Amino acid sequence: MGKLIVSLSPHAHGTDTIERNMYGVIIALIPALLMSFYFFGLGSVIVTATSVAACVFFEWAISKYILKRERLTILDGSAILTGVLLAFNLPSNLPVWIILIGALFAIGVGKMTFGGLGNNLFNPALVGRCALLVAFPAQMTTWPKVGQHWAYLDAETGATPLALMKYAIKSGDASILNQVPDSLSLFLGNHPDGAGAMGEICALALLIGLAYMLWKKIITWHIPVSIIATVFVFAGLLHLANPAYADPVSVILSGGLMLGAIFMATDYVTSPMVPRGQVIYGIAIGFLTIVIRNWGAYPEGMSFAILIMNAMTPLINNYVKPKRFGEVPAKVKR
What we know:
Layout: H1 18-40, H2 42-66, H3 78-88, H4 96-109, H5 124-135, H6 137-140, H7 161-171, H8 183-188, H9 203-215, H10 222-241, H11 248-253, H12 257-264, H13 275-295, H14 302-319
Helix pairs in contact: 1-2, 1-3, 1-9, 2-3, 2-4, 3-4, 3-5, 4-5, 5-14, 9-12, 10-12, 10-13, 13-14
C-alpha cells in the first residue's frame, strides 16, 4: 500500500496543466502562423520548421546528455512554443545555420542554463532573437517584401515601417511618414515594402490569438492592455509635440509591439504574478519600447524592453507581494 501524504488545508484541484497552457498558446498562434505562410510563403515554412525542430532537439539533447534527466520534457509544448515564437521574431529569408544558432541560444542559454521550464529568468525566444541580432545584425535586419511565395534566400527586401519612422525622426522630415502604410494596411498585413519579422505581419491575426487566450483564461488582460495603452499615450504625446514622430496607432501596429505585448511579455515564468505587478510591468515595457525605438540604435525596441523588465520581475513581485493572512503591520508590532 502506498504511503498516504497529508498536506495542510485548503485543498483545491485545478484543471490547469503545463501542457494545456503551452498548447493553448500554440493554438492562439495559428492565425498569425497561417498569415506568415500566406505573406512569406516558402521562406516562412522553412524558418518555422527549422526553428521548432531545432528547439525540440536541443532541449532533448541537453536534458538527456548534459543534465542527465530521466524524465524528458519535450512533449510538454514549451520547446515547440519557443521554436514558433523564435521563428516569429526572425526574417523569412534567414539561413538555416543562423536559425540553429538562435535555437541553441534560446534553449541552451535562455532556458536550460537556469534549470529548465519554470526557472528561466528571461523569455527564451527573445534570448535567441537578441543573441542573433547582436551576432548577425546585417542578416537580422534584412526584411523580405511580402508576396514572394517561392523565394527564400534570394527574396527581394525593403525598408520596414519602423525603419521609415526612425529615419523621419533622425532627419526631422515628417513627409517621410507618408511612405508608411496606412493603419488598415498595417492591421491586415498589406505591406507594399519590407514587412519585418514573420510573426508581426498581421495585427488582426495576433488579436484573434489574444481573444482566444482571454477566452480560455490562459492569460489576463493586464499586461497586453497596459503595454498598448502606455505606447499609445507616449507616442501620442510625441506626435503632438513633433509631427516627425509617427501617430500612435501606426506605432502600435508596426513592428513587434503587438506580438511582444500579447505573446512574449505574458510569459508566465518571466512576468509578475499579481495583477498590480503586471500593470507596472506592462507600463514599464511600453515606456522603454518608445524610448528605444525613438532614441536607441535599433528601430525596434520591444524585445530589449521585455528582457530588461524580465530582469526586474523579481523586484516587482517583492514590491507588490500581498500581506500574509493575519500578518501584523510593522508599525504596530511590539
